[in-house]
Amino acid sequence: RCRGTSGCSEAACTSENQESKGETELQTAIPRQRSSATEREGNTQHLIAVTASLSNTRLRMADRVGKVEIGSVCFFMCDMQAGFRGTLPQFSELSLVCARLMAMAERLDLPAVVTLHCPNALGEIDKGLKTDRRDVHFFNKTSLSMYTADVRKFLDKAQHIRTIVLFGVETHAAVLMTALDLVEKYEVHVVADGTSSTASVDRLFALERMRQSGVFVTTHTSLVYQLLKSQEHPKFKDVFDLVRGPAVNTGL
User: Fold this and answer.
1) Phi, psi (deg, nearest 5) at residue 251
2) CA dist., res. 196 & res. 141, Å (int)
3) Which residues, in sequence order, are bridge partners of residue 149?
4) Which residues in 129-151 are b (16+ Cβ under 10 Å) and which e?
5) Residue 138 and residue 143: Cα distance in Å, rounded?
6) Lower Cβ count inside 10 Å, N or C end of the chain?
7) d(CA 104, CA 100)
8) How far apart are CA 249 and CA 252, in angstroms?
9) Residue 186: is its pLDDT beyond 90?
10) In DSSP terms, which residues pair with 190 in a beta bridge?
């Protein structure tokens, strides 16, 4: 019932109440519409972000395939010194694989980094390893990792290098530490039959540890195929001759 002033009809009052109710509902609906629009916009932005994330993930996955391209590779030979010959099992076979790898780098005109760990104690590079060509860079070190300040400066100047082929000794020490340092910035391929440790268990678990951190594990024979890719390569026969014949047993 209308409780307004005298002369106010019930119909008029009802009409006013309906108008007031309609205004209230409209005022309530507008924020809801705004909220819905904001929510739709938020969903759209979320969808865009998810799509971009998936795209980036695919790109990262493509980058992590691990194809070895000749134009971006540098070989790293770690501490293959005469002092290890009497302490590492099958060192002669290991030295042969490393010699093949260094010859591979030479025939394909690839740069190489060679480190010597405390040479006063461990001696010079083992005989039979040809390291006297122009594009071999020597660095003495006392740290386990090959990625010393001097090596870092060398790599910083060689902007084309994106992939490191790593081999040498010992797998669970200097090779592992080098791989973990380098993999933060470079794609690293460790040559399983081109590295060794005094104890085979250390070698096997170090290779697995590197794999867990994103390092690719390969063999020197497989690496030849990855680098050459086709018999049409002009140096195919010259390089393939390095691995022709019986396999080298390095204890794997």
Assistant:
1) 95, 5
2) 19
3) none
4) bebeeeebbeeebeebbbbbeeb
5) 15
6) N
7) 6
8) 7
9) yes
10) 166, 217
